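re the bet — no i am not wrong, look at it urself. input seq straight from the record:
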Amino acid sequence: MSADKLKENIVRFKRKFHVNQLIRGSLFSTLLFGAIWLIVSLLEGYFWFDQPIRLALFILLISLLIYFISFRIVRPTIKIIRINRGISDDEAARLIGQHFPDIRDKLLNYLQL
């Protein structure tokens, strides 16, 4: 296999890796934020909190939403767009080597040469 073909395959792997992170992060964020929102809504419905507590819960929900969107959705999207800033070729070779034990060190050694 030529070096260009190998580099192309590693770039494709890195793109798929980051797309997988984006999908997993989106699903995780949606489910977790939905569960937290449901709990806060149920608590508010049962206890009828005062204005300061409602404000604190609202700020908590907004900050969690911003966290989930920025770290679980925007960050992998940026890594997909600028693929060279994502995981390195060595890290990609190690991840591939974990799934295919027969080429574990061979791929990493080939890249380092």
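see?? The chain is about 85% helix and 0% strand. told u. also The chain has a mean pLDDT of 90. so pay up
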